[in-house]
Request: fold
Amino acid sequence: MQSSVWPRIRSLLPPTLEEFPQELGPEVDGAIVMCMKEAAACVYRGDLGRCGQLGEMIMDYSWEKLNGRNWRDVSRDWRTAYSYGCLFKVLGDCAGGLEFNKDEALRVCDMSLLLGAEIMDNVISKVIQILSDPLSKDSVETPESTTDLTHRKQKRVRDTQGNEAEAEPNGHIPEKMPRPLTPVLCANTTIPTVRCPSLEHFRQNYLIPQEAVILDGVIDHWPCMKKWSVEYIQKVAGCRTVPVELGSRYTDAEWSQSLMTVNEFIDNYILDQRPARRGYLAQHQLFEQIRELKEDIGIPDYCCLGEGDEDDITINAWFGPAGTVSPLHQDPQQNFLAQIVGRKYLRLYPVSETRRLYPFDSSLLHNTSQVDIDNPDADKFPDFAQAAYQECILCPGQILFIPVKWWHYVKALDISFSVSFWWS
Ligand SMILES: O=C(O)CCC(=O)C(=O)O
Reply:
């Protein structure tokens, strides 16, 4: 018996083996080229089990090539091979019957989007679309990926302050992350807010003079403003694999990145906020990877004042718990930071203050200040206290314009989802 998705997935492939692309470049070992030819032949003679096995072999072998060197030195040929491995593995999985695990197939597709190269006119994204269709229901759902939170076995109890908390299996109630206090802002440092300014007003008063401003009322019509919540993200993206930043801030030595499903991220870092655990889904590929989320947002109209095309705009997702910090840093493009869920505190310093902010010397961190804004060391950074800044609490529905290269420090005051648009 075959899964119900199989006919739709099969229809994405060329009708004959002869038309199946042989796109592997010269860097790929002959043995892998042979595996790929054999896997393609298996598809057309209906031996999908073998096709899946070969796909897994190609994935494993190319994985070593992808991870054996610096990412920027990895050749596109091996990334292409990795994506073909993923495709064959998923074809094998999807053709299977009862034991077809949709979440595992989605995981493999995401690995291809994250690490591989685009193949066969973006076939992997098309497979994801079919797998994500709620009408394809014959797969095995694994407990970790179920969107229903009630499956979790941990007992809910009350902590010492009467708040509901989850006990660990040994009955210990974990210490909860204290919610950050809402800073009180001073009138003369507060970033001004304007409601729906005209393009010309924004250009004359903020873009040309390079002044920060909060724009109110310009994204009220984006579907995300009504739809997005933790539950919604779980529903549309829970089973998707994404990179997550682990650690309090990227300047810390123990900071790292890890791949996990959105559900794992939400369960372990959003809903379970222990001080020792910090995770941030901060990613510029998220909207390319998860099209359902991209459909919920727009592009701020003011981006048309830039010189680039819409395709040149980088859209980043920032999803994390209260207390998540992005250390003081600057970026090389203009930025519209749109706040969708929760509030964020931001502090901005103009480029002219760079000397007082003590950027790191290293080429990797030259755009990051050494000063810990929450706890500045006046002995090491004596001029920092004199640096002039502006600040704001960015609320849902607002966009903050951060001029190019302005330094910005960000702290989430609530569970927060923001979307930033880097444009020039
Ligand atoms: O929201 C954040 O944590 C950081 C945002 C940011 O740095 C950016 O959009 O450039």
About this structure: Residues 316, 318, 326, 331, 335, 337, 408, 410, 418, 420 surround 2-oxoglutaric acid (CB under 6 Å). The chain has two domains: 6-142, 193-423. The first helix runs from residue 6 to 10.
